[in-house]
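hi! just following up on the protien thing from before. the input was this:
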Amino acid sequence: MYITASSLSSSLLRASRARFSSYLTRVSLRAQIGAAVPLVEQFQRRIATMAPEKNAFKGILTSLPKSSGGEFGKYYSLPALNDPRIDKLPYSIRILLESAIRNCDNFQVTKEDVEKIIDWENTSPKQVEIPFKPARVILQDFTGVPAVVDLACMRDAMNKLGSDSNKINPLVPVDLVVDHSVQVDVARSENAVQANMELEFQRNKERFAFLKWGSTAFRNMLVVPPGSGIVHQVNLEYLGRVVFNADGLIYPDSVVGTDSHTTMIDGLGVAGWGVGGIEAEAAMLGQPMSMVLPGVVGFKLSGKLHNGVTATDLVLTVTQMLRKHGVVGKFVEFYGNGMAELSLADRATIANMSPEYGATMGFFPVDRVTLQYLKLTGRSDETVAMIEAYLRANKMFVDHSEPQQERVYSSYLELDLEAVEPCVSGPKRPHDRVALKEMKVDWHSCLDNKVGFKGFAIPKEAQDKVAEFSFHGQSAELKHGSVVIAAITSCTNTSNPSVMLGAALVAKKACELGLQVKPWIKTSLAPGSGVVTKYLLQSGLQKYLNQQGFHIVGYGCTTCIGNSGEIDESVASAITENDIVAAAVLSGNRNFEGRVHPLTRANYLASPPLVVAYALAGTVDIDFEKEPIGTGKDGKSVYFKDIWPSTEEIAEVVQSSVLPDMFKSTYEAITKGNSMWNELSVPANTLYSWEAKSTYIHEPPYFKNMTMDPPGAHGVKDAYCLLNFGDSITTDHISPAGNIHKDSPAAKYLLDRGVERKDFNSYGSRRGNDEVMARGTFANIRLVNKLLNGEVGPKTLHVPTGEKLSVFDAAMKYKAANHDTIILAGAEYGSGSSRDWAAKGPMLLGVKAVIAKSFERIHRSNLVGMGIVPLCFKPGEDADTLGLTGHERYTIDLSSNIDEIKPGQDVKVTTDTGKSFICTARFDTEVELAYFNHGGILPYVIRNLIKQ
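and the predicted 3d structure came back as:
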């Protein structure tokens, strides 16, 4: 059993006071809030990231001197261990090692855990388990709202069980950036930012007020208001510490976040990755994270990118390579001479897409490029000096000018940057890379191919169809492949000045040559921070983007997460009435079917300059090398090469336009909020007053009738199959984030409560309401369920009656009859965004187990966290090879005694048709079994806190 920092004795608190006199020197809301917090509570929170006094390794606590005299503080010195194995460790593993040493109290973290990490070369192939305590937690509002709802609900549960509800408080710094709520309602307008923000506040006022309440009711929580930027870019440019100095104890920054792209911070040399919301909540409350000590893939970079090749081209190439290599559950660590050729922003782009290539992290150790970026983004000289001194002293700094100690990796890959060529990815998956020169041929093969990840099955005779329509009195036409959405979006790229200014240069050249984007294409630009706007204005290039329709629409994720807003009715009608395969081109990181917009069946990921180029061409059905993009004002054909800027042109503009003061002024103002945010009034009480009529914030049922006795482990008996899936079912399929369809169970629920259709908002915005989210589970309009024999849509077969029902209605019918349900699935089940609702929703529908060929890492963890049993078919087997149709009833033979269940053990599954097969139970650690025994991670935490 683990304890939290809040359970440490008062004597330890007293002994620690001298060390804990202040926390952060940064000017932020957290500092302002912290000043008003009682001292003892501050001590408790600090202990969560710092070792207790009786640390087993106190003998290696070492002073870090300043060059000017005195010291920065003390740190746990890895060289002082005098263990040659440490010199061979990957840098990413050294961060895990330091954390284990610093937190080693021989209770939460033991000497044996430290030894496992030091002996990584031998232990990592054995799937050994280690505890890890991240230095902080980061959230965005889609996942942050349900996290704060859960924390508020846990306080109520503590209260009902007669314990102190104030034990439910974050014990590590928590940053929540509101970035997922803005939609592109207004585009192509100078007033778009203000108009979209007003609509954002109208829709989300209740959610925002709830988050503002959370920032005052819970200690140690900073909320960055709407309109500030995208969480990962704000993390990169402002929140990332790289090295903490907490009252004289120095240690590496590390972070877990409730967004899978938390990995972007790995580009800054900060160990960070995505976890489920429920796992993050446990980390906030001081629980060590239990993780399998990962293998590390060494990815060597050499050479230099060719002229005109972008970081986006590089990341799509890396993504394809790593997907092919197989890196799920592993760290990827980049090294080699090519590192010196990559800017920090380029590294962050590669790190950002770790979920797309399947890795837990894509890590870039700190070097001189990192330090230069820290200075550029406004970190003080003193802070940067401390970071360099600490990392050098603790052998965590890479100096490319010195001979490199050879490190050991689990496996190796190499890429010569000169081999990277311009490319896009699509039309339905991020790792389906297409070289730009092959795009036209690939597009036509997609039209021909049967329906699948690379196919639309359009008959030959229909492939040249032209849909003519009137766009506000102007003659217009669409064909298969016509671009209807072109979005410069997503922190993957908007954090990178080179590609953003590159896009602006493409727009400038197009304007000068007389090219113009067609008015029926919905164009948008959503920067990840206010810094982008400053340097676009400084460069004088924003006006050209505006001329092409790429006005700034807001500071948030927008199109990348499906908040693309409506497309014009005339365009929508032309698509639906003529069954056109319309295209979206976006600079995002996800392009799963149904995510970007319900009417864009083809969605391509591309660099920002390519987004502008495809918008100008108006179609993805083009060979940029041979076919003109359009006709210039002189009547001559304009080709791709005529509008594409050179690497040197871009570098010149970056050098003159991206300035340190831009970062300083942006982030000095960021925590002040805006008038709309500041006008929100919130109650001062620490227990939340649930509003019964609210359709945004609703008290969830997780802890109803909860007692101090764990419910225990359980098998599954005579369960029906709710859904039978193939491969690559994503969290977008399981728990959509986008629009609420007018005919869905969620829509009916809202209409019954007086919510008009125009006010439905998105599923993502309503994640604080379990009633909406349960009805939205498996509500994706592109869902393919084998029980329906090829029919596409959010329905299933109720096996006992043969009725075809919505998934929610079928699940409720099973629950009413006291029937358990299971889900059958193929490979990569739960890939995509780290959505806790993709596990919470099925649990509320009554799903007891998921049997799949393989699981995405975070989603499997989330299922366990909600008490759902994840089972894997044995290699070479799946539902089809075993002859399972989903019409059977399933019994899963799991003991009711948790002590008789082991991580990864074999489990027998039998059906009422006489079939039986063996699966692997994907409880990967002993701690996960404890969660299962308690009915989930949150009941486990509550019971432990009460016992302490």
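The CA atoms of residues 848 and 868 lie 5 Å apart.
Confidence is low (pLDDT under 50) at residues 1-53.
cheers
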